[in-house]
């Protein structure tokens, strides 16, 4: 069934996020968001429930399927790493195919509150996962 591993970092002491395969802005994206507090990584599995918001999978009836969660914060940079299954079976996660291409969005915020507005954002396309 396999999984894929990610490592994200940003120049912030707040949260960092990756959104996989959004349909419109944030809507439909499989989000993985994380921050580091007192040396501990807090990483959440969320879903883009509208073009401008997201909610934890667990609040929508899904599961937190993120594995191998870790993170660090040093010199004003937050870094998180994690693994996600290629197919978790959760309706709020994307099914990822080896060799597939996916639009991804990135963002980070200045606080440890996942609902705070992002400071910066970007998008990219992952070719041949």
Can you describe what's shown?
The chain is mostly beta strands. The protein has one domain: Cellobiose dehydrogenase, cytochrome domain (Immunoglobulin-like, Sandwich), CATH 2.60.40.1210. The chain is globular. The two termini are 15 Å apart. The chain has strands at residues 3-10, 16-20, 30-37, 40-50, 53-56, 67-74, 77-85, 102-108, 120-126.
Structural topology:
Elements: E1 3-10, E2 16-20, E3 30-37, E4 40-50, E5 53-56, E6 67-74, E7 77-85, E8 102-108, E9 120-126
Antiparallel strand pairs: 1-7, 2-3, 2-8, 3-4, 4-5, 6-7, 8-9
- Tell me the number of structural domains: 1
Report the radius of gyration as a whole number of Å. 14 Å
CATH architecture: Sandwich
Low-confidence stretches: none
Between the first and last Cα atoms, what is the distance in angstroms? 15 Å
Tell me the number of strands: 9
Can you give the helix content as a percent range? under 10%
User: How many strands, which pairing sense, and closed or not: the largest β-sheet?
Assistant: 6 strands, antiparallel
SS element count, helices: 0
User: In order across it, which strands form the biggest sheet?
Assistant: 5-4-3-2-8-9
Q: Characterize the overall form.
A: globular
GO cellular component, one term: extracellular space
Pfam families: DOMON
Organism: candidate division WOR-3 bacterium
Protein name: DOMON domain-containing protein
Short descriptors:
129 residues; mainly beta; Immunoglobulin-like; six-stranded antiparallel beta sheet; three-stranded antiparallel beta sheet; 9 strands; globular
């Amino acid at each position: 069934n396999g999984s894929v591993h990610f490592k994200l970092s940003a120049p912030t002491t707040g949260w960092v996020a990756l959104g996989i395969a959004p349909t419109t802005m944030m809507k439909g994206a499989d989000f993985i968001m994380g921050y580091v507090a007192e040396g501990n990584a807090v990483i959440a599995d969320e879903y883009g429930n509208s073009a401008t918001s997201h909610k934890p999978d667990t609040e929508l009836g899904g599961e937190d399927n993120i594995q191998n969660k870790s993170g660090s914060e040093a010199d004003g940079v937050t870094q998180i790493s994690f693994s996600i299954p290629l197919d978790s079976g959760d309706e709020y996660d994307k099914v990822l195919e080896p060799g597939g291409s996916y639009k991804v969005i990135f963002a980070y915020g200045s606080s440890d509150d996942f609902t705070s507005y992002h400071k910066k954002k970007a998008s990219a396309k992952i070719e041949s996962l």
